[in-house]
Design goal:
By secondary structure, this protein is of the alpha/beta class. It is about 45% helix and about 15% strand. Helix 8 (about 165-175) packs parallel to helix 9.
């Protein structure tokens, strides 16, 4: 993702939600410092590329329809990327996702358990989750950092805003052959007004690519 191309959309998101760019940048810097002792970040990027490039990707959102939609497909046919809370749904079914994209707002204990079984975790730092980043990142391995602000040497911006659409952007960034969505309900009426606004942005961003 070229940040110059992403930045105008990022600025619109900040304005729409009243989020702080400085908060996002501070969070990215904190995550970057925490990951300095991790393995070479190039290894993490190569691992993502090897998993995704030319593969059929299943992106799992965490809408209530996820379980029913999973019943209709064979997850063995795909490389699986889960959006935060969707990880627990798959893990409880005995399925370990290949990649977890998370801002640490879901069932993090299940994400840690999946990580121990081999899932790569793309941890997203933003202005509202610094405490969770500090709490949980030390318990994870094979972590790749992400931000919605300007990228740093070891914290990347692959595009996207919510966990779900960031999964899709990640898959596109690394050359997926196809991207199938399950567990996405952009018109869910049983969520907060804030979540409805986030779902609207998720749909706009996914439609854009």
């Amino acid at each position: 993702m070229d940040f110059d191309s992403w930045e105008p959309t990022y600025l619109k998101i900040l304005a729409d939600f009243g989020f702080s760019r400085k908060g996002d940048e501070r969070a990215a810097l904190i995550l970057s410092k925490m990951l300095e002792k991790e393995r070479d970040e190039t290894d993490g990027i190569l691992a993502l590329a090897n998993l995704i490039y030319g593969k059929d990707i299943l992106v799992c959102g965490n809408a209530l329809i996820l379980a029913d939609e999973l019943d209709m497909i064979d997850t063995d046919d795909y490389v699986i990327i889960t959006a935060d809370g969707a990880t627990a749904v798959l893990f409880d079914r005995g399925v370990v996702p290949d990649i977890i994209v998370t801002d640490l707002d879901g069932d993090v204990e299940k994400e840690i358990a999946a990580n121990k079984k081999g899932a790569i975790v793309v941890v997203h730092a933003h202005g509202d989750n610094v405490d969770k980043v500090k709490k949980y990142v030390p318990r994870l391995r094979d972590v790749i950092g992400s931000t919605q602000a300007a990228p740093l040497d070891n914290v990347y911006n692959f595009g996207g805003f919510t966990d779900g659409d960031r999964c899709v952007y990640l898959a596109k960034e690394f050359g997926a052959a196809s991207i199938t969505l399950v567990g996405f309900d952009f018109n869910d009426v049983n969520v907060s007004d804030m979540k409805k606004k986030k779902l609207k942005w998720a749909k706009l961003l996914i439609d854009a690519i």
